[in-house]
Amino acid sequence: MKGYSMGNRTLVAWVGATDWASMGNELGSQTKSQVEKAIGRSVRSSDDGGPIKSLLREERFDSIHLLNNYAKSLEPAFSKWLGKDISFYHPQKFKNPTDYSAIFHISDTFLTELFEDPTTRPTELCIHLSPGTPAMIAIWVLLGKSKYNARFYQSYQGENSVTEIPFDLDLHIRDVITKADAAFEHLRARSPDKSNGFSDMVGDSPALKEVIDRAACSAIRDVSVLLLGESGTGKSRIAQLIHNQSRRRDKPFESINCAAIPEQLLESELFGFKKNAFTDAKADKKGLFERADGGTIFLDEIGECGLALQSKLLSVLQPLNELGLCVRKIRPLGSLEEKTVDVRIIAATNQNLIQQVETKAFRLDLYYRLAAITIKLPPLRERKNDVLKLGNHFLAELNVNFSRDDRTFVPKSFSSDAIAFIRSHSWPGNARQLYNAILQAIVMTGRNKISRSDIEAAVETNPKENSLGFLLQDVELNKGFCLTKYLELIQKQLLQRGMDESQGNKRKAAELLGYTNWQTMDKQLRKLDIHFGR
To answer: What are phi and psi of 161, to 5 degrees?
Structure first.
C-alpha cells in the first residue's frame, strides 16, 4: 500500500504504550529500563515494531505530529528509532486514560492549532487510530468525521490499511437537526396573516415569524414585555396586538410616548393628580395607571425617561406578588393616599438600554423590571422578502382611504421599475419611511402608475438616509472614545450575528461573513469569546 499526494499530507496520532515498548525492545537494556519506567509495565518480546513504525514503513507523509503523554526525554530516541522527523505535542498530563472530556479538549485544541498555523496546515489530514486507548480512538473518530475531514489508518498484526468508517457524523447530525427543525417549523409554518390575532402583520420572513411567535407567547402571561427595535419597525402595533390577544383584551389599552412629553408633566400623566396639587390643577385627574386598571399601559420610548422618573417607575412597578404579578400601588401627585391598580406594562425603545445602563443613563433594576420578556423587532433591511408585500399592503390601504374620501380618485399601482426600487432600497426609516414614501408618491403623481422616480423623489426628501454618516452620526467623539474598541464591538456584533444566523455552523458562518476559511473566523470567535446562542 503506497500513497503520496503533493502538499502537506499530515499524520497525527497518540504515541501508545506499545510503540514505546517496541522501541525499548529493540534499543537495548538502558532504553528498555527507561521505557518500562515511563509506561508502567514490562517490555515483552511480543512488543515488535509497534503500529506507528509499521505504518511509516509503507506510507509516506510530509509531516508527522505525535501527541505524547509519556516522558519527553525519550522523544529524541523515538524519532531516531522511527527514522523520521517528528513534531511532538505535549498535553497536560491527565490521570485517567478514559477521560473523554480531557481527551477531547486536548485533541481538538491540537488540531485547531495545527490548522490555524499556515506552516503546519494539512492539505490532507491522516489519523492513525491504532495507538492509544479506546477513548482516544473514539475521540479521533468523532473529530475526524465532523469538525475535521480526515482519512483514518489502522495497523493489525503488521498489516496496515485505510479504515473506512461507514457513516458521516456531520450528515447524521445535520439530519437530526433538520428533522427537529422541520418538526418545529411545522408548528410555526402558519403565515403571519393566518396567525390568530396577528393578521395585520404583513410578511412571512423568518424574522417576522419569530417576532409573532414571541409576541403570541408573551400575550398569554401577565408579565412585562420590552420591545426593542429601530424607529418605524412597528413596536406600537405589536404592543397593541399583544394586548388584544391577552386576557385583558376587553380592558383599556393606554399608551404614552415618554419622549413627547416634558418630564415634569410625564409624572402627572402617568400617576394623575389631586386638585390644587400644582398651579394649573383645577380638578382631580386620573393618570394612565388608574385609567388602564385591569388592562395594559404601553410606555413608548421608555429610554428617554430621566433618572428621577425612572426611580418612581421602579417603585410603582414593584408587583404586590401576593395579589398578582401586575397589581401595583400608585400615589397621584398631591395625594397622601395610595391606590391599588392592576396594570400590565409593555415598554418600547429604539435606544440601546444595556449601553445606557453602562453609562448610568438608565437604571439596571428598572431594565430587569421591564424586560421579563424581550422582543426585538427586525429592521426592514433584514426582511427583504417582506418589503414589496408591505408596500403593496400600504398601497391598497391608501387607495381605499383616498377612494372613500374622493369619488374621482383613480387607484394607483406600481410600475415594474418602482417595484424594483422598493425591493432594492434599504429603507433606513423602516416601515414608516416606506409608508410615507408611498403616500407622497400617490399624492404627487398625476399618473395611474407610480414610477421609480415618484418613489425616489419621496425618499430623497426623507431625513437620515442610509449612508455611512447616518450609521455613525450618534457616535460621540471625545477624549474617552477609542476607535479600536469601537471597531472591535462592530466586529463582535457581526460575528455573533453570523453565528446566530448559521445556527452555530462555523463553516456556514464563515461563508456568510466572507472568510476564506472557517478556522480564521474560529480564532476570532475564541478571541472575542463568542458562542452560538449567547
So the answer is: -155, 155
**Which stretches of the chain score pLDDT less than 70?**
1-6, 46-47, 92-94, 167-200, 277, 321-322, 460-481, 531-534
Q: How far is residue 306's CA from residue 271's CA, in Å, rounded to a whole number?
A: 16
For residue 207 the three cell numbers come to 424574522
Beta-bridge mates of residue 162: 153
C-alpha cell at 141: 473518530
Question: What does the pLDDT read at residue 520?
Answer: 85
CA distance 401 to 72: 84
Coil, strand or helix: which one is 160? strand
Closest CA to 317 of 269, 365, 354: 365
**Grid cell listed for 373:** 420578556
What the block records as the C-alpha cell of 187 is 408548528
Cα angle value 277/283/288 (rounded, 5°)? 80
Place of cell 400644582: 278
301 vs 347: CA distance, rounded Å:
7
Contact between 196 and 219 under an 8 Å Cβ cutoff? The reply is no
Looking at residue 230, what DSSP letter applies?
-
Question: Grid coordinates standing for 521?
Answer: 473566523
Cβ count near 534 (within 10 Å): 8
H or E stretch covering 209? helix 206-220
Residues 183, 188, 191, CA angle at the centre, nearest 5°? Answer: 135
CA dihedral of 179, 183, 185, 189, whole degrees rounded to 10: 130
* Distance between CA atoms of residues 13 and 129, nearest Å: 7
- Residue 21's H or E segment, with its range, is helix 17-27
Report how far apart, in Å, the C-alpha atoms of 18 and of each of 33, 85, 179, 259, 450 are.
15, 20, 44, 75, 81
Q: In the structure grid, which three cell numbers stand for residue 348, read together?
A: 418600547
How many other C-beta atoms lie within 10 A of the C-beta of residue 531? 10
pLDDT at position 417 is 86
Considering only CA atoms, which of 180, 182, 244 is closest in space to residue 212?
Answer: 244
pLDDT at 357: 87
Distance, C-alpha 51 to centroid of its chain: 45
Quote the pLDDT of residue 190.
44
Q: Give the whole-angstrom CA distance, residue 294 versus residue 290.
A: 9
Q: What is the pLDDT of residue 11?
A: 93
SS3 helix, strand, coil % of the chain, rounded to 5? 50, 15, 40
Contact 333, 271 (CB under 8 A): yes
Q: Report the alpha-carbon distance of residue 32 to residue 510 in Å, rounded.
A: 50
218 vs 417: CA distance, rounded Å: 41
The answer to whether 391 and 384 are in contact (CB under 8 A) is no
Nearest by Cα to 121 from 517, 449, 445: 517
Cell of 38: 515511563
